[in-house]
Amino acid sequence: MPLDFTPRADDGARAARYTADGSWTDETLGSILGDGLAEAPGQVVAFRSDVRPWRGTYAEAAEIARRVAGGLRAAGVKTGDPVAFQAPNWLEAAATFWAIAFLGAVPVPIVHFYGPKELGFILRQSGAHILVSADRFGHLDFLANLDEVRPTAPELEQIFIIGDDVPTYAKPFATLLDAEPIDGPVPTDPMAPALVAYTSGTTADPKGVVHSHRTIGFEIKQLTELSANAGLPLLVGAPVGHGIGMLAALLIPIRKRDGVHLIDQWDPGRVLDAMVEDHLSAGSGSTFFLTSLLDHPGFTAEHAALMTHVGLGGAPVPAAVGERASSLGISTVRSFGSTEHPSITGCRHEDPKAKRLSTDGRPMRGVEVQLRDDDAGLVGVGEPGEIWSKGPDCFIGYTDPVATKAAFDDDGWFGTGDVGIVDDQGFVTIVDRKKDIIIRGGENVSAAEVEELLIRMPGVAEVAVVAAPDPRLGEHGCAFVRMQPGVCDVPDLAQMREHLAAGGLAKQKWPEELRPIVEFPRTPSGKIQKFVLRQRARDG
């Protein structure tokens, strides 16, 4: 059954505009993948894993994907049907994603470490009748999750299991491979839904973000152009169930006819070894992927020479990280976007260093940006305001029509919920989330402003400042600090305040709690889950 979905009200006007200027074409997700895989048959596809390693070529991977597509078609999948899958960065996950796209159906990727709560919600809301799932991975027991979820997801009719432990209610993934392969991508309406990407869990329940073939197609083209000078193929550790991993590993390399390289667990030591073995770059994505490599004792000048161009986004990027990378000969650029509108602004490596390190770039090609105050008025240069955007890669709506209506104004502008400032050259800097402001005694304190200073303390690897309840002031700042490997001396509150005073930060903005943390809770893209930290602060 096709995805039950109501697109945003202005899609007709967008189609007229973006097809006229060439931003939107008749390419589909299936045709983009089919053409790319066919035109570079000998290109490498490699999955690094202790449990399911695989290495082959575009031609071999495409043949497997066409067989999976044949198996899904035999299982009843038709054009427009949502098909869910949940698996680590394995060949089977990639083949399933490509197969669904070849059929003109709608992939519903589910991040592999989502538990029964998220899994059940996504299956019910997407209406997927078919799920491809792993059996187990490390401490993750997907079958136990399915035992809990299946009674609550009545529309789920067929399950295919990757692995040796296949319960009686499911079929082995190998069943799909036994089918006759389809000939090629199925022709599909380019305005139709092509993908449902669920947001990564910074709110209570994920939102189903629907992209059409045209919106995701433009995004692939946009990021391919942006990464044209990035050099070597990229080793991707972000989950393919999340937008960043899916784009970076399964879509952009195919558009570039580049090697596809994934790893199912981000182990910095193994990543560094793989870089040398296969002459790969790494470290792009959220800040964590870069800093984890720079912090590792095995990082050398040889690795720095392999990652001369790194793109960062999906999480705050302190200028200090860019400065550290620059000292090693690594050029970093920052970008800003979301699952809904993936590429809103971005720097380029040819931009001035000061802009690359301290701003999130200018609006991308075809993208329009407005900064508004709380009364919907436009703010001036240097004044903070919520970022509203338009663009060819902006999504066509949520699976929830009520959420779709609330996300856009009457003129089709999307409210991001992020607060930024723009300078006189058009460079935008994200300064906060609207929900990430600490209101201390009636004074708004930007968590990002405090974090930018605290990250410069000696030995500090990462920091997150959140609001904690205060009986006198309403809220105060609580700083969670992760130290660099091997650093045992965590700064105390007095040292932190001395550092902030030296940095010129107003006293009323100083955190009044400091808590060491070994590992931060993170979204699939590597972003710190501040709602978890806020709850810890509330719980004391």
User: How much of the polypeptide forms β-strand, as a percent range?
Assistant: 15-25%
CATH class of the domain at 11-220: Alpha Beta
Q: How would you state the average pLDDT, rounded?
A: 93
Spans where pLDDT lies below 50 across 5 or more residues: none
Share of residues in helices: 25-40%
**Alpha-beta classification:** alpha/beta
Number of helices: 18
Question: What is the architecture of the domain at 11-220 at the second tier of CATH?
Answer: 3-Layer(aba) Sandwich
Write a brief structural summary.
With 540 residues, this protein is α/β, with parallel strands linked by helices.
Overall description:
It is a single chain. The chain is α/β, with parallel strands linked by helices. Among the domains are: 11-220, ANL, N-terminal domain (Rossmann fold, 3-Layer(aba) Sandwich), CATH 3.40.50; 437-539, ANL, C-terminal domain (GMP Synthetase, Chain A, domain 3). 33% of the residues lie in helices and 23% in strands. It has 18 helices and 27 strands. Strands 4-3-5-8-9 form a 5-stranded parallel β-sheet, with helices on both faces. Strands 2-1-13-12 form a 4-stranded mixed β-sheet. 52% of the residues are buried.
Tags for this model:
single chain; 23% strand; GMP Synthetase, Chain A, domain 3; 18 helices; five-stranded parallel beta sheet; Rossmann fold; 540 residues
